[in-house]
């Protein structure tokens, strides 16, 4: 199969969809790999690294999209990229379609087959292609939030760990999955007073066991959030209902009970965000203020640490990328229900129920598509 990997064009996105090691494996499996010139530079990989791996360097994204049977990326295709997708072509990348009707419309119109990293599952019900980036974004969240808490950035001027005689920051993390757990580890390490909320009692038990009294767990309902908000210096949004638009858990009105200069870090922004006042921001201009509360809502947080993130993502995507290339998407998905769960769009039809529900578009069963 001809596999193509273009340079990411989302603002300040330095990751790349294929590492030289992934290219090497694909070539070893008999595939032809095209990498756009300079695509790996932001993650510390030179064109020569890819040539050593057996890949071919091509100058433009147009050549990649025109020549590749499968395009492997990191972020959702931007408008100019969507125009280059075509019927029969496989797109393997993050999509986050539920909050993004424009992208969904364009992918349906292109006729391509789009497999979303964030809805591929594993045997334990986890999300193996989202998890590595959630590990990164979770670790970054308290770091970015603590930067936003500084006075020069509009924050209240509270130090995460406090100092002897002065209390540490109070941090609430809503959602105790991969992002929430990683964020808790860093926030606890910085010395903050951390509360994690989740709807899953088994998850709260796990966190209680692992953190051994170094954080508080609380069942997540409206009352718990209302009770915590007035005391929190930072709230990290880390909820997920796979593929679906994130539930709104803090309203604009509730910002009024928080102390001025407190910070909301909405990691769930890629699924539309879990605070009513969230809107996506970029690394170039990451924060804004609403009613005295600082919001950090960067939708591609792992892009900030592109070297670590690219390698972690490449390790996770590699076996799925190879299966798609070796068997073709249809057979690969037919043989692996977890990969089939990644199928969001095929030949002008939506194949993921939570996306269809969020956008009011009819959905065809992915099982039917692979059998057809
Ligand atoms: N902004 C960025 O750059 C990045 C964003 N993300 C996003 O972060 C979000 C979280 O991802 P993961 O931690 O991997 O998901 P996960 O599935 O591991 O964890 C989500 C947790 O949210 C909980 N949850 C669901 N509804 C809830 C509610 N109403 N209240 C409290 N908890 C609730 C679930 O029980 C689960 O434990 C996703 O939207 C993901 O796409 C992930 C990586 C990078
Ligand atoms: C998961 C995601 O949206 C990212 O890594 O950018
Ligand atoms: Mg998007």
From TrEMBL:
- Alanine dehydrogenase/pyridine nucleotide transhydrogenase NAD(H)-binding domain location is 149-297
Active site (UniProt): 96 (proton donor/acceptor), 270 (proton donor/acceptor)
- What are the GO cellular component annotations? plasma membrane
E.C. numbers:
1.4.1.1
- Lineage: superkingdom: Bacteria
Q: Which residues bind NAD(+)?
A: 134, 198, 203, 220, 239-240, 267-270, 298-301
Q: Which residues form the Alanine dehydrogenase/pyridine nucleotide transhydrogenase N-terminal domain?
A: 4-137
Which reactions is this enzyme annotated as catalysing? L-alanine + NAD(+) + H2O = pyruvate + NH4(+) + NADH + H(+)
Print the keywords alphabetically.
NAD, Nucleotide-binding, Oxidoreductase
Which NCBIfam families is this protein grouped with?
A: alaDH
What's the protein here called?
Answer: Alanine dehydrogenase
Q: Which organism is it from?
A: Roseovarius spongiae
Instruction: Give the lineage.
Output: Bacteria, Pseudomonadati, Pseudomonadota, Alphaproteobacteria, Rhodobacterales
Name of the gene this protein is made from: ald
